[in-house]
Specification:
Layout: E1 3-4, H1 15-22, H2 35-48, E2 52-56, H3 59-69, E3 76-80, H4 84-87, H5 92-97, E4 100-104, H6 113-119, E5 131-137, H7 150-162, E6 166-171, H8 174-181, H9 185-189, E7 194-198, E8 209-213, H10 215-227, H11 236-248, H12 253-268, E9 273-276, E10 283-288, H13 294-303, E11 306-307, E12 309-312, E13 315-319, H14 326-335
Parallel strand pairs: 1-11, 3-4, 3-5, 5-6, 6-7
Antiparallel strand pairs: 2-8, 7-8, 9-10, 10-13, 12-13
Helix pairs in contact: 1-11, 2-11, 3-10, 6-7, 12-14
């Protein structure tokens, strides 16, 4: 049995999702003539109570478009030091938007309104970059799937409003946050200027992210997506997968969260595990004892048919997902205490 817990991006479309894809009505989306793409964009915008949305082939491109929409070259963006836009988007903020990043030492990838306020450069001090945007990641990837409270996000929004800053949400796993916290899409739509959401992580679609904002901003985003090479033709086949996922795969995320927590409970009891970070959603991060080589631990898992990933400095990551079935889960729960390390 091969069990891939490296990421929630490794899933394959279900038979029902494939059926929806094969039967999708398509057109040329570069001309905005693909009916299924249009339906997906309208659906997501309506969910979040925002005016318009635009489909992208990746979350990175959606994020990079949002950063460019909300800034000018030479500006500075406030974000956590573990943010995806900083660590995992290949320096795109500098390359695409000509902006620098003001990195905040937050808590598991989450920042506070007080930290944001203290990080804003004096707009009259022309020697420093002009602070123009605050970018939030929810859930936090490197922070182990941690979720923001809505009240914290509202407090940051107030700081943004008071200082004329734009507010972006990297919501790659926002669906996990909403299920874990009992939140609704409209609560986020009321706060942020731009929101990117991913369909190919917890929801199990094969490709795609969506950027949401007001109609004027999304019209500008269309041009930037073109510059980035993100226009696709009969992309409705992909949009159909996204629509199916939104209709059928959100509530089941609670199963992924439950399984991640159960794995965390077992890991806490193992002598070769130094610590396990709090498990809120589907990402589980744990540290091995300092005398152990993490590569050896990964190989031990692999020898049992279980694939996980390394995050450096003795940290390992497990991500539960749609294709991680209960029979697999029971196998992993049984194997963990027996690993000879």
């Amino acid at each position: 049995m091969e069990i891939n817990l490296v990421s929630d991006t490794v899933t394959k479309p279900t038979q029902e999702m494939l059926h929806a894809m094969f039967n999708a009505k398509v057109g040329d989306d570069v001309y905005k003539q693909d009916p299924t793409i249009n339906a997906l964009e309208e659906k997501v915008a309506t969910m979040f109570g925002m005016e318009a949305a635009l489909f992208f082939p990746s979350g990175t491109m959606a994020n990079q478009t949002a950063l460019k929409l909300n800034t000018q070259p030479g500006d500075e963006i406030i974000c956590d030091k573990w943010s995806h836009i900083y660590l995992y988007e290949a320096g795109g903020t500098a390359f695409n938007s000509g902006c620098s990043l003001q990195l905040i030492d937050g808590n598991r990838g989450m920042i506070s309104a007080h930290q944001v306020k203290n990080a804003i450069n004096d707009p009259e001090f022309f020697h420093a970059p002009l602070t123009s945007l605050v970018s939030i990641e929810n859930t936090t990837n490197k922070g182990g799937g941690a979720c923001y409270d809505i009240e914290t996000l509202k407090e940051i929004k107030q700081v943004c409003t008071q200082n004329n800053l734009k507010y972006h949400l990297d919501g790659a796993r926002i669906w996990n946050a909403m299920v874990a916290k009992g939140q609704s899409p409209r609560q986020f739509g009321e706060l942020f200027d731009t929101i990117s959401v991913c369909l190919s992580k917890g929801l199990g679609a094969p490709v795609g992210s969506v950027l949401i904002s007001d109609a004027k901003t999304i019209k500008r985003a269309l041009r930037i997506r073109k510059v980035f090479g993100g226009g696709m033709r009969q992309a409705g086949y992909l949009a159909a997968a996204g629509i199916y996922a939104l209709d059928n795969h959100i509530d089941r995320l609670a199963e992924d969260h439950r399984r991640a927590k159960e794995l965390g409970y077992i890991l806490k009891q193992l002598p070769w595990v130094a610590s396990v970070e709090p498990v809120e959603t589907n990402i589980l991060i744990f540290s091995v004892q300092p005398y152990l080589d993490e590569k050896i631990i990964i190989q031990k898992f692999k020898d049992k048919g279980i694939h996980i990933s390394a995050m450096g400095h003795g940290k390992l990551r497990i991500v539960t997902h749609l294709d991680y079935r209960q029979v697999m889960h029971e196998y992993v729960l049984n194997i963990l205490p027996k690993l000879s390390v």
